[in-house]
Amino acid sequence: MEMPDQMLDINEMDGPLGQRVYTVLRTSILEMAIKPGAILRKGALCEQLGVSRSPVADALSKLSSDGLVDIIPQSATRVSRFTMTQLLEENFLREAVEVAAVARVAHDCTDDQFMRLSRNLRLQTLLVEDNDFQGFFEADLEFHKLILSFTGFPKVNHVAEEMTLQLRRARKLMLPEPGRPAQAVLEHQTILKAIENKDAETARTTMARHIRQVTQRIVPLEREHPEFFRTT
Predict the structure, then answer these.
(1) Which residues contact 86 (CB under 8 A, 6 or more apart)?
(2) Res 205: pLDDT
(3) What whole-number distance in Å separates Cα of residue 204 and Cα of residue 101?
(4) Is the confidence at residue 9, as pLDDT, over 80?
(5) Strand 77-79 versus strand 39-40 pairing type
(6) Phi, psi angles (nearest 5°) of residue 124
(7) Could you give the CA distance from residue 126 to residue 130 in angstroms, rounded to a whole number?
(8) Nearest-10 crossing angle of helices 53-66, 17-30
């Protein structure tokens, strides 16, 4: 397997070598630069990344713990494929966490937090106008991360991210979606307005609808991309 052209350079990163290799591979998998089902061979990875086998083995072990790769003993390592149950469950969990989070933020949002959300939303609008779907995807993720971080609970953002890794990958398959980014911006505007008005109920119900529509878009993926889904 050839490593993707657009990827992080481990020589420009800080930290232990094993952690850098892990970050490079994890990012490439999450960004769908390395597709579900792809075979990762240690020897090839060592050559392509210019490292020894030990940091590669450590990185693959961590990725296995993340559920992003399946290690096949005495054979190879394969990037994990999706299951529909897994994706629907992760979106269900995402809704539970983010609906509770936005209601809390609507009660307690500070002026500085509101300004940060507003700046992010203005960026989203510009990216949609420029048809920059990848940029919008990243700004969309950041909008939701900001809301989670504003709950005041330090672990919430990390836990929410780790329990929706497969969903994040799958959402990449939905890009570009004609009309969806513009609609998402409108939904974010409604959420932000509810936060400004300290209207926790509207914030909660709008966020729930906003996340549930992802379910409608997940279901066709197995038919459209069967090669990325497990058959057993």
Answers:
(1) 166
(2) 98
(3) 9
(4) no
(5) antiparallel
(6) -55, -45
(7) 6
(8) 50
Q: What is the pLDDT of residue 1?
A: 54
10 Å Cβ neighbour count for 147? Answer: 27
Half-sphere exposure of 143 (CA within 13 A, CB side): 25
Q: In what order do the strands lie in the sheet with 69-71?
A: 39-40, 77-79, 69-71
Q: Quote the pTM value.
A: 0.89
Structure confidence at residue 232 (pLDDT): 72
Ordered domains of the chain (ranges, CATH): 10-79 (1.10.10.10), 84-227 (1.20.120.530)
Share of the chain above pLDDT 90, in %: 84
Q: How many CB atoms lie within 10 A of CB 211?
A: 19
| 143 close to 191: Cβ distance less than 8 angstroms | no
- Prior bond to 176 cis, omega within 30? yes
Mean confidence (pLDDT) of the chain? 93
Angstrom distance (rounded) from CA 206 to CA 200: 10
Q: State the Cα–Cα distance between residues 48 and 204, nearest whole angstrom.
A: 47
DSSP result, the chain? -PPPSS---GGG--S-HHHHHHHHHHHHHHTTSS-TT-EE-HHHHHHHHT--HHHHHHHHHHHHHHTSEEE-TTS-EEEPPB-HHHHHHHHHHHHHHHHHHHHHHHHH--HHHHHHHHHHHHHHHHHHHTT-HHHHHHHHHHHHHHHHHTTS-TTHHHHHHHTTHHHHHHHHTT-S-TTHHHHHHHHHHHHHHHHHTT-HHHHHHHHHHHHHHHHHHHTTHHHH-GGGB---
